[in-house]
Amino acid sequence: MKYNIEAIEKRKDISKKFKFVVDIILVIIIYNIILVSISCINKIEEINIFGYTGYRIITESMKPNINSGDVVLVKTINGDKEEIKKGDVITFRKNLEVITHRVIDIEENNGENVYVTKGDNNNLEDQERVEKSELLGKVVVVIPYLGNIIGILENKIIFLILVLIFLILLLYKINIQEKKENRRLKKKIDDEKNRDK
To answer: Which residues contact 109 (CB under 8 A, 6 or more apart)?
Structure first.
């Protein structure tokens, strides 16, 4: 019966290692969600996470595909000719304004592509062409309603309080699971000892 107790201890050790890996992955995910949220809140400096940046949509110009209050994840591109095609949705900076519109045509100017853009909900194309130097990237994912939540989180005190509450609840849940697992293992060990008697 000693073998069973050793097997239980070995399983407990493996469980701890697995929990440690899961905890690290959770921390990385939470960290990335916070960075995307901060990059959406921060209007001037974008935070690039593995080649992606989040932008909050604040106008209705791309309705019905992208709505005000959505967040778009934009993949950074270097502006090579084959990277952007007609029909792609791109994010670019004109003056200090960040705009997300659809490419409706591609023209050439001094050997470089310039993009004719238009909001899906707009009647007219944008007056100015988008040059390579103004490109921020191509939209790859639209996350509905996340921008509305981020709007609430622009208040940094509320944001910190919510993050702390989330982390406290997460740690509380992990603690409860550990206690349950320890009780279960202790019961198994006690049962094994009682059978040996």
So the answer is: 129, 131
Contact 135, 112 (CB under 8 A): no
Integer Cα distance of 124 and 117 in angstroms = 9
What is the number of other CB atoms lying within 10 angstroms of the CB of residue 100?
Answer: 23
Q: What class does CATH assign to 46-145?
A: mainly beta
DSSP, collapsed to helix, strand or coil, labels residue 192 as: helix
According to DSSP, the β-strands at 112-118 and 135-143 are unpaired
Q: Is residue 38 predicted with pLDDT exceeding 90?
A: no
CA distances from 162 to 9, 30, 70, 113, 154 (A): 38, 12, 20, 45, 12
Q: Within a 10 A sphere around the Cβ of 89, how many other Cβ atoms?
A: 21
The pTM (predicted TM-score) of the whole model is: 0.60
Q: At 3, give phi and psi (nearest 5°).
A: -60, -40
pLDDT confidence band for 44 (50 / 70 / 90): very low
Neighbour-count burial for 116-140, b at 16+ CB within 10 Å, e otherwise: bbbbeebeeebeebbbbebbbbbbe
DSSP β-ladder status, 89-94 and 71-75:
unpaired
Separation between Cα atoms, residue 148 and residue 167, nearest integer Å: 22
